[in-house]
Write a structure and sequence with these properties.
Rossmann fold; globular; 209 residues; alpha/beta; 10 helices; single chain; 8-stranded mixed beta sheet
Length: 209
C-alpha cells in the first residue's frame, strides 16, 4: 500500500518506519520535509520525504493523521479535494493545554474526537488507531512474535476496518476491533484504555468492564 504519513513526529515517524520495513510505500511529511530526509533513509524500503501538498496529491491508499489535534480543521479544509474515498487513520488526541479551545469544545461535546475528525474529513473513510499507545512502546515493540502488544481500533466502514487491521498486524501488533467510531470514547485521553500498553486478553477485559 501507499501510505501518506501526515506528521512525522514520534508516532508518525515510528509507524512510517515500521510500515516501510513491512514493504509498504511510505510518504513522510511535515511542514519542513527537508528535515525528514534522514528519517526516510533510515526507514529504508520505499520511504521518502515529501511536502504536505505532494503527499495529498500522491493519491495514497491510506493517510495517517499524526498531527496535533488543532491541525485537523486546516488540513481538512486545505486538502478537501484530495482525500475523497480514501482511508484516514486518525491517531490524534485532543489536549486542551496544547490544542486550545477547539480541543476543549470537542471534549465537552456529545461527540468524541474521532467522530469530529470523521465529520471534518467528510468524504473519507475514517478509522481510529495508535492514539492510546506510548510512543516508545510503538517504536520498540513492533514485529514481536510472542508477547505482542494489542492496538485497539475503531472504523467507520468495512474498508477502513480491514485496511487498519492489516496495517496493525503487518508490523507485529495484535489488532483489537472495538466497533464503530461512536465507541471510541474509551480511547480518548484520560479514559478507560488510553495509555494502556498490554496484551489482547487484558485489553479485551478492560474494554468489557
Amino acid at each position: 500500500m501507499k501510505i501518506g504519513v501526515i506528521g512525522s513526529g514520534k508516532i508518525g515517524g515510528a509507524l512510517g518506519t515500521h510500515w516501510a520495513k513491512a514493504g509498504h510505500e511510505v510518504l513522510f511529511t511535515s511542514r519542513h520535509p527537508e528535515q525528514l530526509t534522514q528519517l526516510a533513509k533510515e526507514a529504508g524500503g520505499k520511504a521518502k520525504a515529501v511536502s504536505l501538498d505532494e503527499a495529498w496529491e500522491a493519491n495514497a491508499d491510506v493517510y495517517l493523521l499524526a498531527v496535533p489535534f488543532k491541525a485537523i480543521d486546516k488540513l481538512a479544509e486545505l486538502y478537501a479535494g484530495e482525500y475523497g474515498n480514501k482511508v484516514i487513520i486518525d491517531a490524534t488526541n485532543p489536549y486542551p493545554e496544547r490544542d486550545g479551545e477547539m480541543a476543549q469544545e470537542v471534549r465537552d461535546s456529545n461527540r468524541n474526537a474521532s467522530e469530529y475528525t470523521a465529520m471534518k474529513f467528510g468524504t473519507a473513510k475514517t478509522a481510529k488507531a495508535f492514539n492510546t499507545i506510548y510512543s516508545d512502546h510503538l517504536r520498540d515493540r513492533a514485529f514481536q512474535t510472542t508477547d505482542k502488544l494489542a492496538i485497539p481500533f475503531a472504523a467507520q466502514d468495512e474498508d477502513s476496518k480491514n485496511i487498519t487491521q492489516q496495517l496493525i498486524e503487518d508490523i507485529g501488533f495484535d489488532a483489537v476491533y472495538i466497533g464503530g467510531l461512536e465507541k471510541t470514547n474509551l480511547m480518548d485521553p484520560e479514559q478507560k484504555i488510553y495509555g494502556k500498553s498490554t496484551n489482547r486478553k487484558h485489553l479485551e477485559e478492560l474494554i468489557t468492564k
